[in-house]
Amino acid sequence: MSAHEVQVHGHCDPRFGAVREAFEENFRRRAELGAAVAVTVDGATVVDLWGGWADPARSRPWERDTLVNVWSTTKGPVALCAHILADRGLLDLDRPVAAYWPEFAAAGKEKVLVRHLLSHRAGLSGLREPHSLEDLYDWELTTARLAATEPWWEPGTRSGYHALTYGFLVGEVVRRVSGLRPGAFLEREVTGPLGADFTIGLPESEYGRAAELIQTRPADDGEQAARFAELTPTVIATLTNPLVGAAQANTPAWRAAELPAANGHGTARAVAALYGVLAGRGSYGGRRILSAGAVEVAREGQGACRDLVLGAGFQQDTEFGLGLWLSGPGGSYGPNPRAFGHDGLGGSCGLADPEAGVSLGYVMNRLGTRIADDPRKTALVDALYSAL
User: pTM of whole model > 0.90?
Assistant: First the structure.
């Protein structure tokens, strides 16, 4: 197989041939290196495709069980942990965070609610003091600093994307309530029972299955200029303290850490299964993991606005539910404005559409340059809905 000839493997129900065509087109026209896509309908997998290469040298083919870091697509499963606890009556999303995490009340945060953490409205998108990569890998240090930090803006008023801090904030509440960090909680409650090949962080025993990430430089310097045209102290703290990218994510130290906003590793099949739970379709032992009522809570819009961190990268206002982006009028997750999902740095995506009973997972190792709605992801989502 040459660098320009990619054989796609796996299964695709004939009804969803358009998804296969879009996936193949990503390799031919959109510079895909290695990737996988999966779709479930009413909990049944109807698309499970993979192809390309797991490394830039094109020495390792992408296999059925290749794992890859999916960046912020991890945030959906982390939010799912909180919603499971709320669904069981163990967590009240309208109570102050400090009711579960007393130290969090410092620096004027005593009225910050759990829903503010889930919807990126807590004002804690970045730390004010320098925070190194090594610091980021230290759970206790990072959560202690977040508990002591003064918000960058009035909590609850606007969203400001909590790129790295989100996983520690929501994750520490999960730990305070359940006794488990989100990685262990997710394994016990969801991925273990479902057999979903997804972990937060990556055990050393699985390194041989991991794809190597590659960073793509933007072809248009103006794109980068526009993105950083509104560099406020909040944005700088959020996106550069510390600075992370493909080089960091390929290291054993990154993989060994638990970074619930950014270092989930899995297959597209596992991502589709997890977002299927958010669509209300995941079950085991004769019961749904997340009730219909909890699904509705998860996608309660918290108000459209120009995001304080990512605003320069979007042409219109965006809206978070409680943990995921709503598709909205822009159709980021298909034509149903109440569908929801999450993109990861460089292009990966999880999508949940309760009305259609559909979920999608897309993972890859060549990171694109878009904040969200990478053209490869958009092509797959459009193809999915054309088939429906």
Answer: yes
